[in-house]
Amino acid sequence: MTDDRRPDDDLPDDLGFEIPDDLSGLDAAAPPPDEARASAGTATSDVPDDLSGLDAAAAQPDEPVVAIVVTQVAGAKALAAACSLAGVAVDAVPSPVGALAVLRDAGDAARSASAAEALSRMLRTSPVVLLDRRSGRISASRWSAGEREDDLAPGLVLSGAPEVLEEILVGGTPVADVPGVVTSVGMSRWAAMRALSAGRRKGD
């Protein structure tokens, strides 16, 4: 009598799957959708019920936001005084091309633009340039007498920029580490007026 049993007939019943004669059909051995979903539920990573938090996480910037107003003011103290009178909180940094106003509050582009408007109105005799870096992108705009004149190519603005400007805007150097920085925060109106008067006398 011929034994029609296959070699795999002697395998135990608790394997949970059948070994096919033709191995080319392994794709057919994939678990049905219901079983696949069930097995996926045993993965170590949990999928939250509320996915609304993903948008908030994606909105977080990968790097700090930096906004700098480039001015033609000769000294950092005089610029800090002007910013104090304009009601703009900045850290003023000296540079070869003019003092830089690093905004304390650059939470959104509208705030940066409002600060540039206020400073250009205060320094109405000379234009200022706003450099705004957020989400890895840099924008540049020119302001004069409280009005936004035009947008500039950031590459052209930075091509001849002093090293300290690039270090703060692009290099991520904390403004507190820059020598000669003067803050407008806490400066009284009397001290601001005195600093501006001293600056004018030196310029004469």
Task: State mean pLDDT (0 to 100 scale).
Answer: 78
Shape: globular
What is the structural class? alpha+beta
**Runs with pLDDT <50, length 5+?**
11-20, 22-31, 36-48, 50-61
Gyration radius (Cα, Å) is 32 Å
Main traits of this protein?
204 residues; seven-stranded antiparallel beta sheet; 7 helices; alpha+beta; 33% helix
Structure explained in plain terms:
With 204 residues, this protein is α+β, with helices and mostly antiparallel strands. The chain is built from seven helices and seven strands, in the order H-H-E-H-E-E-H-E-E-E-H-H-E-H. The protein has helices at residues 33-40, 53-59, 76-86, 109-122, 154-159, 163-169, 189-203, and strands at 66-70, 90-93, 100-103, 128-134, 137-144, 147-152, 182-183. Strands 6-5-4-1-3-2-7 form a seven-stranded antiparallel sheet, with helices on both faces. A hairpin with a 2-residue loop joins strand 4 and strand 5 (137-144). Helix 3 (76-86) packs across helix 7 (189-203).
